[in-house]
Amino acid sequence: MFTIALRVLWNGGVARIAVEQARNAKAKLLVYRESFYNYDLSGIYVEFLRRKGEKGFLTPLFRKITEIYAKNRGDEATVDLDLIVKASRIIKEPALFHDQFAGITGYLRKVFHGEDYAIYLHETSLTLKGIKYLIPKVMERKVLEGAKIILTNSQWNKRVLEDKGMGAEVLYPGCYTIDEVEEDKENFVLAVSMWDEGRRPEIYGEIAKRIKGRLIMAGSWARRDTMEEFKRKYPEVIVTGRISEDKLRELYKKASLTIRFGFDERGPGMAVLESLCNGTAVIVNDGIGGKEFVIEGENGYVVKDWKEAVDRINEVLENHKLRRSLSINALETGKKYSWRNHAIKLTEIMEKLA
């Protein structure tokens, strides 16, 4: 058995991938800090270093430091350096660390115990500019260069790492596919994310004003005040807030389309893949790694901006035959990915560390 190390268990794409890897690969899940989440952990061997609501002596300091780099993500995004160090005294190889910060644990294990480790990189800071990013970039480079194996979630991320002199292997996330496309798609468009100001929710608000159907924004918000301000400004949008996995799957199946915008977000955005696996076509922009799943005009569209997205959405909402064709093709794309196959490949890779 190998260990999967996750810094924060909350309703975000990183945690979702780690949970399903642990479930399907029968790996141990070591969670540094528990936050709010809706994941089913039954059947998973999970250990928590800090339970929900607990704080360390230095937590306020770590929150202040984290705010310098991720102001809009709220307190739950705090990088707990004390837990990163604590984990280095607990974890044993082989281990896969989700993101470069958890990877500090692996780096410490290698320095003090000579153990190899693997990293699953979701996003990289190596392309960021500005003096405030100097320390995180130096840290990330050391962690990545120290890793025996670097996995990442998109070809885009792989190219960036190669440009920085580091090799990586792409292991796309998995999904659970439905058997057949929902016959009675409803007249709404779905957007799913862990929402914060950096995801530019106002774009979805502007789209909602102009489409010939409803727009539902599902998923947790990093900050409640951000959500409430958005709801006040864009009453046209149905905002679910935190939502159960079962209800989210129903929305994916019933939606006519799923839309997702990214802004130099090289990871795929789990909503893109999960939508396809539930037989719903996607519309994305060029700034998100999920575009790698899109076959233009067959299972979705890559648009240049939100105004083009409005045109595409209305075209699909008004054309049942087109919507049906896109949906069938979306499910066929989704069937190429499964958590089972992902876990088999991951296990093969992790055996190289043993």
From TrEMBL:
It comes from the Archaea. This is Glycosyltransferase. SUPFAM superfamilies: UDP-Glycosyltransferase/glycogen phosphorylase. Gene3D superfamilies: Glycogen Phosphorylase B (3.40.50.2000). Keywords: Transferase. InterPro entries: Glyco_trans_1 (IPR001296). One of its GO terms (molecular function) is glycosyltransferase activity.
